[in-house]
Design brief:
This protein is mainly α and 175 residues long. The chain contains seven helices and four strands. The strands form two sheets. A two-stranded antiparallel ribbon has the order 1-2. The chain has a two-stranded antiparallel ribbon with strand order 3-4. A hairpin with a 5-residue loop joins β3 and β4. The longest helix has 38 residues.
């Protein structure tokens, strides 16, 4: 069987004006999605092959299983055997990774997985809106941190004597 993993370059999303990813151009290096052409369906993957297909480590797969995000297939063979994963597992792993790239936390992803079996778009939308609100708060905090650091860098550049304002800003006052 021939399998092809095609990495999707998500960097193009960074260039969208109001993109969630616009503030973090490194997400594409951290979250790479894999696609599999339907005619090349995956069957009988080991956990290491599944991890490789999803761009994660084996321990990540096991963690997702402990958290109930992914199924733990039955073992095949004598003495405990080997677990075999299939296309559904690859899709689920890609769903989790894609949701993480969009900013969702694992608890939210677990709920989205539950809602996938229903037609409750209202709750899915509300989860997305709640996550957007949290992301906006986090973005605002990062922008404030960036602005403060830019002011300190400017002060450091334009002050000729004494300790560097950047270094003194992080040094707690002596009592």
């Amino acid at each position: 069987m021939i399998r092809h993993n095609h990495a999707i370059n998500l960097r193009c999303l960074c260039h969208r004006k109001n993109s969630v990813f616009a503030s973090d151009s490194s997400f594409a290096r951290r979250y790479t999605l894999r696609t599999i052409v339907r005619s090349q369906q995956v069957t009988g993957l080991s956990v290491s092959e599944l991890a490789r297909a999803g761009g994660v480590g084996i321990e990540t797969i096991r963690y997702y299983q402990r958290e109930g995000l992914m199924r733990r297939p039955a073992t095949v063979g004598a003495g405990g055997g080997i677990r075999h994963y299939d296309e559904r597992d690859v899709r689920r792993l890609n769903f989790i990774r894609g949701a993480q790239a969009a900013g969702f936390r694992l608890k939210e992803i677990a709920r989205l997985i539950e809602l996938e079996q229903t037609d409750d778009r209202i709750e899915v939308r509300q989860i997305a809106r709640d996550r957007i609100a949290v992301l906006n708060i986090e973005i605002a905090a990062k922008e404030r941190a960036r602005d403060a650091l830019a002011r300190l860098a400017h002060q450091c550049e334009h002050s000729g004597s004494g300790p560097c304002p950047i270094l003194t800003a992080f040094d707690p006052p002596q009592l």
